[in-house]
């Protein structure tokens, strides 16, 4: 019970930190988004490799790099998480926090769809109804905005695909982040060293923003460490419930802090997606209960 309680608080802290990230990136809004992304990649590599060296687990990273089968999935995983991080940072600093929150609300349903398409996972009527309602929500958002909600779709698809690739690779936790960021770090360094927009961002640095950039590795890895611990001590159904804390915080920050407009059309789109998530969660609980009974 003690481990379960610690797992609960660890997982909740993870999702709260992810939900509060818009506030962090917003402080850096005067810097180029790709410059921020490059720093996040470099300092995440430094931080994760440092931890693995200190705990004498860097051999796990070497083993992944030597495993061609794992690298077949880790390379595209690195690309997809780069797209996800980059679009998210840009969205936050361009006044699209509500769109990003929709994307992360949709993520469980995207994962569900990928599970059916690629892994032939079992599903019930309630799951398909949830997916249908979410699709209606996206269509409403498309009509309401007058444009395809690409930010939400890209974030949901990239993160869902990222999780799928990591599952196929069988690499998790800090080892995964270390491998991915080490793959990307040379490109990030080249961009920071030679890109004119990077030079402009460097010129605009203040003591505060310099420290915040240096801390991006810790900001990236800390929620992952908490999540890894929590998911190993909690039922997946509990983790499934808690994951909605992150986009909910993003939604509140977008409306209350940055005064993004929650129009009637957006509310209707959110409502469809929210009902879809409720149904999906009910289906998830039913499947978990059925699996326990069968076990």
Order of helices and strands: HHHHHHHHHHHHHH
**What would the average pLDDT be, to the nearest integer?**
86
**Sheet with the most strands, sense and barrel status:** none
Structural class: mainly alpha
Radius of gyration: 19 Å
Count of strand segments: 0
The share of residues in extended strands comes to under 5%
Shape verdict: globular
Spans of at least 5 consecutive residues with low confidence: none
Helix content: over 70%
Secondary structure elements and their pairing?
Elements lengths: L1 H26 L5 H22 L3 H9 L1 H25 L4 H23 L5 H21 L4 H20 L3 H22 L1 H8 L3 H8 L1 H16 L4 H7 L2 H13 L6 H31 L1
Concise account of the structure shown:
By secondary structure, the chain is mainly α.
Question: Which key terms come to mind for this protein?
Answer:
295 residues, mainly alpha, 14 helices
Question: How would you sum up this structure, described in words?
Answer:
This protein has 14 helices and no strands. The longest helix has 31 residues, at 264-294. It has helices at residues 2-27, 33-54, 58-66, 68-92, 97-119, 125-145, 150-169, 173-194, 196-203, 207-214, 216-231, 236-242, 245-257, 264-294. α3 crosses α8 and α5 runs antiparallel to α6. By secondary structure, the protein is mostly helical. It is 85% helix and 0% strand.
